[in-house]
Amino acid sequence: METDPLGIRFSHHTAEVRFRPDVSTVDIIDRAQVHRCASPLSYAVFRLNEYYSISSIEIDGVRITFKQSGGFVAIPALQRDKSLMTLRYRAILPSKGESYSTPSEAALTAYWLPHSARLPATSTITTLVPEDWRGIAPGRAVSSVVAGGLRRTTWQNDLPVSYISVAAGRYREYETHKDGLTVSAWALRATPKQTERILETTANAIRWFSARFGPFPYRRYTVVESSVFPYGLEGYSFTICGSQTLPDIIPHEVSHTWWGGLLPNAYTRSLWNESLASYSERLYERQKRGSEAMESDSEAQYEGRNLPNDPPLDTANNAMHPGHYAIGYQKGALVLEQLERFIGSERMLATLRAFLAARSPGSAVDWPDFVAAVRKVNGPEHGGFLDEWLRSSGLPEYALGTVTAVQKDGDYQISGTISTSSPVRWCLLPVVVRTSGESVEANVRITGSEKTPFEIHTKSPPTEIELDPAGMALRRDGRVRQPINRL
Ligand SMILES: [Zn+2]
After folding, report:
1. Ligand 1 centre distance from Cα of residue 438 (Å)
2. Mean pLDDT, range 316-324, rounded to an integer
3. Ligand 1 centre and the CA of 267: distance in Å?
4. Rounded to the nearest whole angstrom, what is the distance from the C-alpha of residue 304 to the centroid of ligand 1?
5. In which band, very low, low, confident or very high, does the pLDDT at 288 lie, cut at 50, 70 and 90?
6. Distance 283 CA to ligand 1 centre (A)
7. How far is the CA of 251 from the centre of ligand 1 (A)?
8. Is residue 341 domain-shared with residue 474, that is, in the same domain?
9. How much is the ipTM here?
10. 140 and 241: one domain?
11. Kindly report the CA angle at 238 between 235 and 242, in degrees rounded to 5?
12. Per-residue confidence at 298, pLDDT binned at 50, 70, 90?
């Protein structure tokens, strides 16, 4: 299993990355702090993207034999609890894809550093690029020197993360400073006006998320434009974004500093942090439209139409697979919005903060850790919300049972039950009763039971009842309504 380290784990990388855009190569020396861990094997195994060919490996200065095959590297079992591993390797990079090199930019994104089980590590990375280029790696720049036609910049990241990337290119650099934070844009094609919007969107998103989730852990954040990479790339002190995605993608990428950075995702089990980043992005867009209340958003049922049934949220783990992508990004965000409707916006933010507060640096987290935060903040009566939403396929269906209306003390009492497909997914379900006068709306809390009774009072004679006419609940498509017959 990729989730278990086999005899070795990496805690810190001190790497030198030399890009040679004239020949599309990258040469890397990684001096990694490694730790021995339990393994049933007589050797240790780690992973490195198969692009790279390793020329040598030393453990504590002694050259060792190794076998590289596919994305795996086997070495003799470590003799000490803690060692320094020096790995020299290189690649000829393609002109597009996850890692690339062109005459104007280059990047390494897909597991270009050795790792086991994608566990989080800190890093000190030096980029070596032509002097008219700039290179960036996670963390803060601790030194930058130009000599012999090369620009050499060292970046230190004290936040252990699972996903480490590097970018370099012939960028134009712009920046703004506010409240102790520097926001930079490294632009290739973006016009000065577009760059201004990039800086503004980034600064706003950082400020907005910091106020709600907790302090931003860096003093600087850089948006790196790419003409090659078509999406946004998760980063924590910087992000690489395709020209056409800017500036709209920025809030999502900025939120990864919390969902992926402060709380790392090893990406071996689920895309939980993409669910949280997509949710955060939608939360941010909602406030830009002037509303923090879920009530203004009624797209859940409509958006749910396009979701595949499988896999369940807690096993969608491959961001490159369209079905997993739809579940991890879109269904995840929709389910979190349903949770927010259920517990309220304030408790939702408190839950996110509790999730962050429970972090233990160096460990990756997953859905069960988020569920623990939901339970802790919201108590048993709200804490079970995610259980079935995470492990079930497809969407639930809610139906009306028998509904009766009786006239009582001058008003009408409408009572009935809502039945739920199994397994029961918790939901705050709007119910609307239409009358000869105005409509009356109530919210019914669906929790653990397949049949939920409800009671609604109206002043005028009721004529019809409908579940969730605005489509706010995430449920299987279709109108659910019936006439009301008065007894
Ligand atoms: Zn993302």
Report:
1. 44
2. 93
3. 12
4. 20
5. confident
6. 15
7. 10
8. no
9. 1.00
10. no
11. 85
12. low
Q: How far is the CA of 74 from the centre of ligand 1 (A)?
A: 32
Domain count of the chain? 4
Q: Are residues 78 and 21 in the same domain?
A: yes
The CATH number given to whatever domain includes residue 408 is 2.60.40
How many whole angstroms separate alpha carbon 135 and alpha carbon 392?
44
Window from 8-22, 119-133, 297-311 with minimum mean pLDDT: 297-311
Q: For residue 61, how far is its CA from the centre of ligand 1 (angstroms)?
A: 39
Same domain for 416 and 288: no
Question: Do both 114 and 154 map to the same domain?
Answer: yes
CATH of the domain at 60: 2.60.40.1730
* Per-residue confidence (pLDDT) for residue 110, from 0 to 100: 85
Residue 280 CA to ligand 1 centre (angstroms): 10
Cβ proximity of 293 and 238 under 8 Å: no
Distance from residue 159's CA to the centre of ligand 1 (Å): 18
For residue 246, the CA-to-ligand 1 centroid distance in Å is 14
Virtual CA dihedral for 468, 473, 477, 481, nearest 10 degrees? -20
Kindly list the strands in the beta sheet with 166-169, ordered across the sheet, starting from the edge strand earlier in the chain: 100-101, 105-108, 166-169, 134-136
Picking from 267, 297, 318, the residue at the C-terminal end of a domain is: 267
Amino acid at 42: S
The predicted model gives 3-7 an average pLDDT of: 82
Shared-domain flag, residues 163 and 189: no
Whether the Cβ atoms of residue 95 and residue 108 lie closer than 8 Å to each other = no
Q: State the DSSP string of 63-123.
A: E---EEETTEEEEEPPSSSEEEEEEEEEEEPPSSSSSEE-SSEEEE-SS-S-BSTT--EEE
Q: Report the separation in Å between the CA atom of 252 and the middle of ligand 1, taken as the mean of its atom positions.
A: 6
**Are 179 and 207 in the same domain?**
yes
pLDDT digits (tens, 9 = 90+) for 442-471: 999 999 899 999 999 999 999 999 999 999
Query: If you measure from the C-alpha of residue 324 to the centroid of ligand 1, how many angstroms do you get, rounded to a whole number?
Result: 13
Encoded amino acid at 487, one letter: L
Q: How much of the chain, in percent, has pLDDT values that exceed 90?
A: 87
Strands 181-187, 220-226: pairing is parallel
CATH of the domain at 216: 1.10.390.10
Give distance in angstroms: CA of 376 to centre of ligand 1.
26
- Domain of residue 151 covers 1-169
311 and 458 both lie in a single domain: no
Domain C-terminal end among 252, 267, 282: 267
Q: For residue 108, how far is its CA from the centre of ligand 1 (angstroms)?
A: 17
